[in-house]
Amino acid sequence: MTRRITLISHPERQDAIETAGVVSSHLTDLGFEVGTDCTPEAVVDSELILVIGGDGTILRAAESGRPAGVPVLGINYGHVGFLSEADPDDIPQVIQQIVDGNWLVTTRMTLDVSVTLPDGTVHTDWALNETAIEKDANSQMFEASIGVDGRELSSFKVDTVVCSTATGSTAYNFSAGGPVVWPNVECMVMTPIAAHALFTRPLVVGPDSTLELHVLEDNARVWCDGRRMIHAPRGSVVRVVRGEAPVLLARLNDSPFSGRLVTKFQLPVKGWRVQVPESKTDIDRSES
């Protein structure tokens, strides 16, 4: 039976496009069927969606991988590339691991979003990284009331309120001063940006909670992963809950998240020495 891979690249980066052509040729020579149609219907028979691009391209691939239940594997041709698993220099090794079927699959929690308009119309969407409720293009700010689990917590004028997953905590949420959350933690983070209030600290809630925002004055718009937008005029209610379906990300190794954090953000580490545990005999001698 022929093995199938879906391959997509950044649509505007020439180096990514050229690399995708080379990778496609290699995989074809190795007996794979390589598809480039990244719709849910087209990817459903693929082992992987292989992405050559940045996090934005990976988020585009996730729009098809999520409903099809197909894992996404990214080779970073973007900037930070937190969702990517490998760099361009790793491509030969990536191809070999694909051939060997040597990868892990991790499950990433998503967000389901509903926007109830003043007339009762409900629009729904979802996000892997975050949902950002921001001021409308014609507004300087908008007045929001936020709450958790049906209970109002605070209201204020604000530019944006970001609701993120652990996966998205290193994206918009991080830029807004929100906490970095390890990806194996299932939670939701609500982070106000430029709010006119005393209580504007980020909130971290469990996966079974409901984050809620009421648009009290002016108009807002709701962005899902920065890719899909819903208008939220005055009187709208935005609710964010744990997504019914996760996104599957393929990993090539089980290195800890802390190492990725240091590498991607180029954090200034000194280099720890490996501490050799004392034997029980040494402990007994020191106590005698």
TrEMBL record:
Family recorded in the similarity comment: Belongs to the NAD kinase family.
Enzyme class (EC, first level): transferase
Gene: nadK
Free-text function comment from the UniProt entry: Involved in the regulation of the intracellular balance of NAD and NADP, and is a key enzyme in the biosynthesis of NADP. Catalyzes specifically the phosphorylation on 2'-hydroxyl of the adenosine moiety of NAD to yield NADP.
InterPro entries: ATP-NAD_kinase_N, ATP-NAD_kinase_PpnK-typ_C, NAD/diacylglycerol_kinase_sf, NADK
Organism superkingdom: Bacteria
Keyword ATP-binding on entry: yes
Main location as per UniProt: cytoplasm
Compartments in which it is found: Cytoplasm
Keywords: ATP-binding, Cytoplasm, Kinase, NAD, NADP, Nucleotide-binding, Transferase
Pfam family, one: NAD_kinase
Species per Swiss-Prot/TrEMBL record: Ancrocorticia populi
Needed co-factor(s): a divalent metal cation
Sites where the protein binds NAD(+): D55, G56, R60, N129, E130, K157, D159, T170, A171, Y172, N173, F174, S175, A194
Residues the record marks as active site: D55 (proton acceptor)
Protein name according to UniProt: NAD kinase
SUPFAM superfamilies, A to Z: NAD kinase/diacylglycerol kinase-like
